[in-house]
Amino acid sequence: MLVECYDEKGAEVYEIIIKQIFQDLVLGAAVDDLKAFVNPDDPVFILAIKMKKTSNIVEFKDIARFTYDKQEDVTGIFVEDENYLPNILKKLWRKFSRDEIYQPTRYNIELKGNQRDLETLVIDDPHSNLQRRIYDAIFRILPEGFKIIKDMSRGNIVAVVATDELIMDAWIEKAEEYISELNDGV
Q1: I need a surface site. Which of 107, 133, 138, 152 has the fewest CB within 10 A?
Q2: Domain total for the chain?
Q3: Cα–Cα distance for residue pair 104/177, rounded to 1 Å
Q4: What CATH number did the domain enclosing 149 receive?
C-alpha cells in the first residue's frame, strides 16, 4: 500500500483510515495492492486498487438441473446447491411474478412454459460482487465534499479521481500512472 501526500502525517492518517475501512468491510484478503494520492492544496484524492482474481461466474445450469414436460408445459428446476437458492429466487422474482413461480419443495422450482433459456442466467458474479464492495469502501474513504468523481476502473483495477473542483489532466495522468503500476506489479 502506498499513500502519497506532501504531508507525512496526513499520509499516515489516510493509511490508517484506509486500513480501518478495509478491515470493517473485510476486504483485506481480496485486494492485491493499493495506491492513493492526497493533496489538500489542490483538493484531489486519487485511489487505485488492484483486486485479487475471483472465481468465475456461476450460471444457473452450473447449480441446477432443468427438465421440460411438454405435455404439462412446465419447466422443472432441481437446485443442486442450496447456497445459491436466495440468489436464484431473487433473479427469478425479477423476471417473473411471484405467482408464476411454484416451489413445491426447497430444492424444486416449477415454471410455466419452456424456460430452458434460463440455464445461462448468471446467478452469481464474484468479480462484480467484489467490485461493488470495493466501491463501497472507496466512497467511505473519499473526503467529504469531494463530489466530482471520475471512474477510471478497468479489469481488476478499481480507480477513481475525486475533487470538489474541475478534474485536472495532471490528476488523470497520475491515476493512469497508478493503474499502469498496479497492472505491472510495481
Answers
A1: 107
A2: 2
A3: 56
A4: 3.30.1710
The reply to whether 108 and 50 lie within a common domain is no
Q: What span, in angstroms and rounded, lies between the C-alpha atoms of 115 and 117?
A: 5
pLDDT: is 186 or 178 the higher one? 178
Which tens digits make up the pLDDT trace of 100-126? 999 999 999 999 999 999 999 999 999
Close Cβ partners of 58 (under 8 Å, ≥ 6 residues apart): 84, 122, 123, 124, 125
Instruction: Answer yes or no: do 139 and 110 share one domain.
Output: no
Encode pLDDT of 46-74 as tens digits.
999 999 999 999 999 999 999 999 999 99
| Distance in angstroms (rounded) separating the CA atoms of residues 34 and 125 | 23
Residue 68 C-alpha cell reads as: 421440460
Q: For all residues of the chain together, what is the average pLDDT?
A: 93
User: Above 80 in pLDDT, residue 186?
Assistant: no
94, 124, 154: which is the final residue of a domain? 124
Contacts of 114 (CB under 8 A, 6+ apart): 68, 73, 75
Q: Let me know whether 29 and 73 are in one domain.
A: no
Q: Which structural domain range is residue 48 located in?
A: 2-54+126-184
